Amino acid sequence: MKSFHLQTYLDDIYAHYPEAKRQPVIGLTGNFADGDTRLCNRYYNAVVAAGGTPVIIPPVADSQVIVNTLERLDGLILTGGGDINPLWAGEEPSPRLHSINATRDLAELLTVRLAYNRQIPMLGICRGIQALVTALDGEVDQDIAEARQARRADTRPLVKHSQDADRSEPTHSVQIAEQSELYTIYGTHELAVNSFHHQAVRAAGPRFKVTATAADGVIEAIESSEYKPIMGVQWHPEWLEDSGPALFAWLVGKAQDFAAAKQLHERILTLDTHCDTPMFFPQGIHFDHRDPKILVDMHKMAEGHQSAVIMAAYLPQPKIGETFSSKVPFKVDSPLGYADLIFDKIEDIVRANSRYVSIARTPAELYEDKRKGRRSIMFGIENGLALNHDVANVKHFAQRGVVYITLCHNGDNDICDSARGCNTHNGVSQFGEKVIQEMNRQGIMVDLSHAGEKSFYDALEISSTPIVCSHSNCKALCDVPRNLTDDQLRALAHKGGVAHITLYHGFLRNDGTEASIMDAMNHLNHAISIMGIEHVGLGTDFDGDGGVKGIANSSELINFTLQLMRRRFSERDIERIWGGNWLRVMAQVQLNRC
């Protein structure tokens, strides 16, 4: 009799290796009543049936507990339960408010916000959909009938939203928006659901779009408007045997993808080749905080599983009649002094957080930092104006650890003409030629983002080492002066260089519509089609007006990996895109150092 012989069960487990295949771990928020954490077995059995491993999350509003829990989760389900205290939304309670759950509210709202920042896939069910919008800037009606009466504009008859029938019995229908993930799951415009609520989402908020409504207009489902795997439904799919399993399968599938992306980021080095975070130094940023003023900080880099970033010392180009000192916020004697001051401040940040972040100057140092569990910052210069019209300063910046110099910015300088300049030199100047040659000798990469087309081709001819474009897009998809033509992309690849797409909306599209991560993927795919996989990468331009829906700051960089995985890029190719191509060029340039 096997039932009560433990060894027979153990023998089955150990009869093969590994003992179990890797399943995504799905957290389920527990309800709280009469001093106990409770959860209907329908929830966790649905997760098991979908191929996930369920864990119940108790309602503990301890940040240490919540963060450590989320670090171990691949997906999150926010389960049903009592009303959310309207004070969390800045509202006073209605007489029709039912029992609230003070023990659960703070714990769950913190969990939602921290999970959102970590890009963890989420499914909110009944109360869970309301927790999503409350935590993420939406609005909830305390009572459907009362809210309808107050608004009076909608004359459609109300549907009964709190059914008396068995929980497994659908009692009303919802209409599903065709351009939605929900429609992709079910392939139908109408779905019969159950209903057990008197509160409902009033407004989905900026992070969500409405994807299903009842006949009376009550919102029944929402999903991310930012291309993230987050969905909320007002019904209880765990009780619906026909349609319910599809939602749990969706969540478990997204969690599986997220787990795979996290594991991939553990194995490979992920490098963003251009951010302008130092531009915010005058505002007194806190790099060790999750600082809302900046898009790159230690928290966001950790949340996005980012290994390294190249921070640029950006120097604005004075116009005729302007002085450089009038263009910058710090009192300095020269452009060189300003660049040095920026690097001093980065070094101060690193010293204060040396356990977690380091300054790297070579590919080997980047990989050493990753092995030791540190993130890396590299130095770049955006605008060769920093050289102060002295070729000898190339060596100075090489000794400081600068890995690239963007020859110009938005305006011609003494090195070359800009894409937005006046053709001062008809390309690279005589001084610029000497600068490029000295950069070759000192092992500093020549960056041609912002350069005019003639400057671009001149630099390709002058440089004895491959050229980079740290943050440039494809002119074939977005016809602006800053982007690269297909011929430029081909010439760059022919010389062994790389072009990294950027997330500045105006370089992704110029038709007046909002750019998104999908546009970034289109530019990447186009660059690959012209140059080949060995010559592309990502330079976000975060804090320099870069950042689009779906990849708005460093915490969302893992979403870029998820898009690459969904397009069936191999791990080797993802590693190339995420910095491998760039580091190949960097190693070649530094090897050339005299």
Descriptive key words:
alpha/beta, 19 helices, 22 strands, 594 residues, 36% helix
Strand count, sense and barrel status of the largest sheet are: 9 strands, mixed
> What share of residues is helical?
25-40%
Extended strand count: 22
Q: How far apart are the first and last residues' alpha carbons, in Å?
A: 78 Å
Please list the strands of the largest sheet in the order they lie side by side.
4-1-5-6-13-12-11-8-9
What is the approximate shape?
A: elongated
The chain-level structural class is alpha/beta
Q: How confident is the prediction overall: mean pLDDT? A: 96
Low-confidence stretches: none
Could you tell me the radius of gyration in angstroms?
A: 27 Å
Tell me the β content: 15-25%
Number of helices, counting only DSSP H or I runs of 4 residues or more: 19
Describe the structure.
This protein is α/β, with parallel strands linked by helices and 594 residues long. Helices cover 36% and strands 16% of the residues. Helix 11 (363-371) links the parallel strand 16 and strand 17. Helix 12 (392-400) packs parallel to helix 13. The longest helix is centred in the middle third of the chain and has 24 residues, at 244-267. The model has no long low-confidence stretch (mean pLDDT 96).
